Amino acid sequence: MSDITKQSLSELVENIKSKKLSSSEVTKAFVERSEKSKELNAYITEDYANAFNKAKKFDEKPNLDLKLPGIPMAVKDLFCTKDLRTTAGSKILNNFVPTYESTVTQNIWNEGAILMGKLNCDEFAMGSSNETSFFGNVQNPIDKNLVPGGSSGGSSSAVAAQLTPITIGTDTGGSIRQPASFTGTVGLKPTYGSCSRYGIVAFASSLDQAGPMAQNVKDCALLQEVISTYDEKDSTSIDFKRNEHSKELTKDIKGKKIGIPKEYRVDGMPKEIEDLWKKGIEYAKDCGAEIIDISLPHTNYALPTYYIVAPAEASSNLARYDGVKYGFRAEGENLIDMYEKTRSEGFGTEVQRRIMIGTYVLSSGYYDAYYLKAQKVRKLIKNDFDDAYEKVDAILTPSTPSSAFKIGEKTNDPVSMYLNDIFTVPVNLAGLPGISIPAGHDAKGYPLGLQIIGKAFDEQNILNIAYAMEEKINFKNNITDWWIK
Amino acid sequence: MSKNKSEYLINRHDNQYEVVIGLEVHAQVTSESKLFSTSATKFGAEPNTQVSLVDAAFPGMLPVINEYCVKQAIKTGIGLKAKINKKSVFDRKNYFYADLPQGYQISQFKDPIVGEGKVILDMPDGQKEVGIERLHLEQDAGKSIHDLDPKNTFVDLNRSGVALMEIVSKPDLRSPDEVNAYIKKLRSIMRYLGTCDGNMQEGSLRADVNVSVRKKGSKEFGTRCEIKNVNSIKFMQMAIEYEANRQVDLIEDGQTIDQETRLFDTKKNETRSMRSKEDAHDYRYFPDPDLLPLVVSDDFIEKLKSEIPELPDEKKKRFIDKFKLSPYEANILVSDNETSNYFENVIKKSDVKLATNWIIGELFAALNEKNLEITESPISAGNLSKLINLIKDGTISGKIAKTVFEQMMEGDKDPKKIVEEKGLKQESDPKALEALIDKVIDDNRDKATEYKSGKVKLFGFFVGQVMKVSGGKANPQLVNEILKKKL
Q1: How far, in whole angstroms, is CA B460 from its chain's centroid?
Q2: Does the beta-carbon distance from B59 to A236 stay under 8 Å?
C-alpha cells in the first residue's frame, strides 16, 4: 500500500485491524519518512530500532482490540519515557534517561502504540517558536525557515510533515494550540486535571496539561480518549466521568450557542485574522450553531498575569536541576560555585530569564504586588468565563494573532514573542479545554487556526463543534516536501 | 509582686533580667512512610536505601499526601487542645542545598493544619500554661555528611521527605527548667498519642530555641535570637543559659542585641552567630501548585477525636481523684504511658499507697541504677503486686521486703517463693515474741531498770535488740506493743 504516511490515524487503525497493513509496514513507512526529514530537526532522540522490534512483536501476536494497535508515534521530549533519554529540550537534561514512564505515555503504550522517538521542543516548554531548544530550531514543513510554533514545535512539525500519524504535546499557555495553528494541524488542550502530569517535566504546575495533536479532529478525539485518565499519582488529577470521545463524536451541533468575545479583537490585529474569525463565525452558523456576542472583560490582563504565575512556578520547579543528582554538572570550587556554573551553562537564556522573573515576583516585598495580585486576577479571568458560560456552550476565537513567522524574526524581542499567546493563555489560566483547528490561509499561504474554548470537562462538546466546522472549512494543508531531496 | 520560688532571673549589678523563651519543636511523625511518598522511614537504614523518585526530585515526579501523617498531625493537635483547621495549605519554602533535592521544602506557611492550643506544665510551685501558636506539617531534608571525605560532601536522602510536625510555642517559657518540663510534657503527650516517638538520640525531636531577655517587670519583649536545631534538653538548657547571659552582658555594656540566627556549639558550650537578619534567606514561600489545599471534614476530625486515648493531664486527675495520690506522685506515674500502665497493673490486686511508694521509690531507683526502662523491668507488675500484698498482710516486714525486692531484681521470681525458700516470713506469733522479749529484758536488766526510772529513750534500744535476736523477722508493730507492756 503506497502513501502510508498520508493516512490519518483512523485509516491506519482500520487498515491494521483489517490486516491490510501490519504494524511493521506502518512503522517502516513513518521511520523512513522521518529519516528523510532530518532537515526539519523534529526529533531530538530517535528510537527506530526499538520501534521496529516492538512492531514485529505486535505483528507476531496482534491485539486488535486495542485503540492504537501497533501504531508508531513520536512524542514531545517533555514526557519521561522509561529507558529512553528525556531532555525537555535542555542541555541540563542532555544525558538524562528516566527509569520511569509518564502516565500519559503509558496510557498510549497500553493501547498498543509504539514509540518512535522524542520530538523537539522549546527548552522546558518555554517558548513560542521552538527556538529556545538546546537541540536547535525546528523547520515548519509549510515553508523553509518558518517556525513551527512552540513549545510543541517538534510535535507540530512532525504531524504536519507526516513523520508521525499523531503525537502528544503539552500546553502551558498555548504550546499545543499555537503550533497546531502554525502548521495547519489540530491540537487540543484538555481541561486542567484531565490528563495526568505524572512523569511530565514540569514547567508551571498549575497550568501544564498534556494533549493530543493530529491531522484531524477525529484522530484528536481518539487520542484524547486514550490519554485522559484519573491518576492518583497526580494530586491535581480529577476523577470525573470521561467520555468515549471517538464514539460520541458527532457533527450535529444544531442549536449550540457559541460566544464571540469582543475583547479578543485586539489592537493591531491583522485583517486576515479578523477575516478568518468572521469566516469561522459563518461556518459555525452553517453548522446550525447560534452565535452570541459575549464579553470577557479581564482578557487584557491575561498575558501579564500569565507571565507572573508561570515564571513563579517555573523558578521553583526548575530548582531541582542543580547538578547534584542527575543531568548536567559543571565543576565548581564549592557548592555555590557548582550551582552557579551548572545552571548558567545548563539553562538557555529564555529559561534563565523566566527563572529570574519568577524569583523576583516571589521575593519578599514583591510577592503581594505581583504573585498575589496575579492570583487574584486569575480568579477574575476564570469568573469571566464562568459568567460567559451561563449564556453560551462554547467560545470561538482565533488561535493566534498572526500566522507563523520566520526563524530569528522575534528572538530578540521577548515581549513580541510572548504576544503570540494572547488568545491561548486565558484558557490555561481558567483551566478550560481549548482546541485549535486549521481554518484558512493568510496571504502568504500559511495556515491560520481557530480556537474553540469549552466549559471544564466539556471536551466532547468542543470536539463536536470542531468536527462539524472541520467539514465545512474543508482545509487542505499545502505541504510540498521541500526538505526532501 | 508575686513570690515565685522557681523564678529564673539573671542578676547584674542592680538589675534583674527575665528570660523569655519560645520553642519551635520539630517532631518526626510516627509513620511507616514519608509525607509525600511511599518510601520507608526506618531509622538507621543504609544510606540512600529509602529514597523514591519523588524524594530525590526526579523530573516529572509529584507529591501525594500521606493521609496517615495528616491524621497523626490532627491527633497531636487534639492532644494539644488546639484548633484544628479544616482547610490548610502546603507551601513551598525555596532554598538551595545539596541535601534538599527539590530545591524547596514543602511546608505549611500561612495556613497550618493546627492552630492555637496549650500545654500545662507541672512545676514545683504549681501549674503553668504554655500557649501553642500553631502546628504544621512539613518535609524533612536529607543529611549532608561532611566528614567521610576530605574534599567531598556525601548526601544521604533517607530522611528526605520524612514527615515532621513543627510545633511552635508562644513566648511563654521563662526558664531552662520550664523548657525541660515543656519538652518532656510535649514528648509525653505525643508518645501517649503514638504520633511521635520522641527519641532525641535519633533526631525524632529537635528544637529551634528563641531567646530574649528583658528587665524584670518590663512588658516589652527584647530582641530575640534563634538558636537552631538543638537536639537534647540538656543542650537546650545550656544554650539558653549561655545565650541569656550573653544578651544581658551586651545590654549591661550599653550595646544592642542583633536579631540573628545562632548555632549552639556543644563542645565549647557557647552560641555563635550563624547569620544576621540582613542575611536571612528569602524563602519565596508560595502555595505548592502540585498540591490542592488540604480539606478535612468534621466527621474526619470527630472520628480521630474518638480514637484519642486518655492523655497525661486527664490520667493525672483520675489518679488523684480515684487513688488519692498526691499531685507529685500522680505526675511521676503518668509521665509516660508505660509507667502508668505498670502502676495500674500493680494496683489491680494490691494496696495503692504501698504500690505508689514502691514504684516511685524502690523500683525507679533500681531501674535507674541498671539504666532500664519500665518496660524492661525485671520485676513484673504481677510480682510487685504480690510483694506488696506480703507486706500488707504482715507476712514480711518492709525491711525484709527490701531484701526480697533485691532478689526479685535479679530475675522475676515470685516473692512468695523467695520468702519461703529463705525463711524470711515475719514472726507475728505473740507467744513466740513474748519469749524473745522476755529473754532480751532478762539479758539487759540494768537498762530495763533505767528505763523504768524514766530514761524512756532506751525503748528504741530494746526494739533493736529484739529485732536483732529475731534476725529481723519479728513483727515490729507487735514488738512495740509487747515491749511497752513488759517494760
Answers
A1: 43
A2: no
Q: Which of B106, B277, B286 to substitute to test the interface with A, most A CBs within 10 Å? A: B286
pLDDT for the residue B453: 83
Same-domain check for residues B314 and B375: yes
A152 is catalytic: no
Rounded to whole angstroms, the Cα distance separating B260 from B244 reads 14
Instruction: Tell me whether the omega of the peptide bond preceding residue B144 falls within 30 degrees of 0, making it cis.
Output: no
Could you tell me which residue, A226 or B410, shows the higher pLDDT? Answer: A226
Q: How far is A123 from chain B (nearest CA, A)?
A: 14
- The alpha carbon of residue B45 and the mean position of all alpha carbons in its chain are separated, in whole angstroms, by 27
In the three-class reduction of DSSP (H, G, I as helix; E, B as strand; rest coil), residue A448 is classed as strand
Residues A324, B58: C-beta atoms closer than 8 Å: no
Contact criterion met (CB < 8 Å) for A320 and B57: yes
Taking alpha carbons only, the member of A394, A382, A399 closest to residue A176 is A399
Contact at 8 Å (CB) between B142 and B159? yes
- Identify the closest residue of chain A to B280 by CA–CA distance: A364
The residues near A412 (Cβ < 8 Å, ≥ 6 apart) are none
Please give the average per-residue pLDDT across B374-379, as a whole number: 94
Q: What is the 8-class DSSP label of residue B363?
A: I
Model ipTM value? 0.97
Residues of B in contact with A86 (CB under 8 A): 59
B441 with B326, same domain: the answer is no
E strand segments, A198-247: 209-214
Chain B residues close to A96, C-beta within 8 Å: 59
CATH superfamily entry for domain A4-296+383-473 = Amidase signature (AS) domain (3.90.1300.10)
Torsion region of A32: left, alpha or beta (phi above 0 gives left; psi -120 to 50 gives alpha)? alpha
- Give the span between the Cα atoms of B483 and B464, in whole angstroms: 11
Residue B442: domain span? 430-486
The count of domains in chain B is: 3
| Boundaries of every domain in chain A | 4-296+383-473
Q: Assign B6 a pLDDT band (cuts: 50, 70, 90).
A: low
pLDDT of residue B4: 55
Dihedral, CA atoms, A62, A63, A66, A67, nearest 10 degrees?
20
Kindly state whether residue B193 falls inside one of the protein's structural domains: yes
Tell me, yes or no, whether B387 and B282 share the same domain: no
Q: Domain check: are B114 and B168 in the same one?
A: yes
Q: What global pTM score does this model have? A: 0.92
B286: closest CA among A356, A316, A430?
A316
Residues B152 and B235 in one domain: yes
Q: Establish whether A206 is a catalytic residue.
A: no
Query: Which residues make beta-bridge pairs with B273?
Result: B262
**pLDDT over threshold 80, residue B487:** no
Q: Is residue B7 part of a domain?
A: no
Task: Find the largest Cα–Cα distance for chain A.
Answer: 69
Pairing status of strand B143-145 against strand B154-156: antiparallel
Query: What CATH number does the domain containing B463 carry?
Result: 1.10.10.410
Identify each DSSP E strand in A262-384 by its residue range. Answer: 290-294
Whether the per-residue pLDDT at B1 is higher than 70: the answer is no
DSSP letter at B135? E
How would you label A219-234 residue by residue, b for 16+ Cβ within 10 Å and e otherwise? bbbbbbbbbbbebebb
Gap between the terminal Cα atoms of chain A: 23
Distances in whole angstroms, Cα of residue A382 to Cα of each of A378, A389, A430, A455, B293: 6, 11, 5, 11, 18
Cβ contact B66:B163 at 8 Å:
yes
- Provide the grid cell at B378: 525485671
Q: What are phi and psi of A201, to 5 degrees?
A: -55, 125
* The length of chain B, given as a count of residues: 487
Contact A315, A434 (CB under 8 A): no
Query: Residues of chain A with pLDDT > 70: what percent?
Result: 100
